[in-house]
Amino acid sequence: MSSFINRLTRHFASSSSIGVTSAGGGSSSNSSLPANTELATVAAGCFWGVEHIYRKHFQGKGLIDARVGYTGGDKSNPSYAKVCGGGTGHAEALQITFDPSKVSYRTLIEFLYRIHDPTTLNRQGGDVGTQYRSGIFYHSEEQKRIAEDVTRMANQNWWGNKISTVIIGASDWWDAEKYHQRYLENNPGGYECPMHYFRTFKLPEGYPAAEEDSNQPKDPKPAAEEPKAEL
C-alpha cells in the first residue's frame, strides 16, 4: 500500500510540474497501424516497468512502438487516479506495435511470462488491486490460440500450475497520460516494481509442437487413379 501511495503522490507532482491534467490521453485505433504490423496488448502490474523492459529487449528487434494505457474496464476516458481507485475495472497495460517478420507474437507472450510473477492474483510485489492484474488481451483468434498455448507451457514448466493470468479479447484502449509514456526512460530513478526482471527459464524440449503442427501443410488427397484402358 505504501508503494501505491508513493506512486500516486509522485504522479500528481509530476503532472502538475509539466502541465498534464488528470484526464486520460484518449483511445487509440487499430486503423492507424503501420502496414505489415500487429498489436500485442498485455498487463503485468505497474505499466512503467513493463514498457521499459519490453523496450530494452525488443527495440530494434521488431518493436515499432510501445504505449502504456488502460484497458479491460467499463468507463470511457479513464484517468490514472480513477483507475488506481479501482472503480473503472481497467488494468494498467502495455500495447505493443510490432513487426511480425522480425519478432513473433509467441515470443512476446513468452517474454511476458519471464518478466513478472503471474501467480499473484491482482498483485505485483507491493502493488495490489485489480488494476495490477496479469492479463493478455488478444486481437485475433490466432493470437488467442497462441496465448493459450504459451500459457499452458509456462504454467506447467515455469510457474508450478499457479498462473492466474486472464486471457480475454481486446476491448477499448485508452492511452495513459503523457507523463506515463517512457516514464523510466525520462525518470531513471523512478519507482520500478521489484518483480519486473528477466527470468532465464528454459523452453521445454519439443516446444512449440502445437503451433508447428497447426502450420504444417495438409497432405494432399491422393489423385484418383486414371481408369486403365482395356486391352
From TrEMBL:
Domain of life from the UniProt record:
Eukaryota
Q: Does the keyword Cell membrane apply?
A: no
Q: What's in the keyword line of the UniProt record? A: Oxidoreductase
Record GO biological process? cellular response to oxidative stress
UniProt xrefs under HAMAP family: MsrA (MF_01401)
Q: Which NCBIfam families match?
A: msrA
Which family, according to the similarity comment? Belongs to the MsrA Met sulfoxide reductase family.
- Please report the name of this protein according to its UniProt entry: peptide-methionine (S)-S-oxide reductase
- Organism annotation: Orbilia javanica
Its encoding gene is what? MXR1
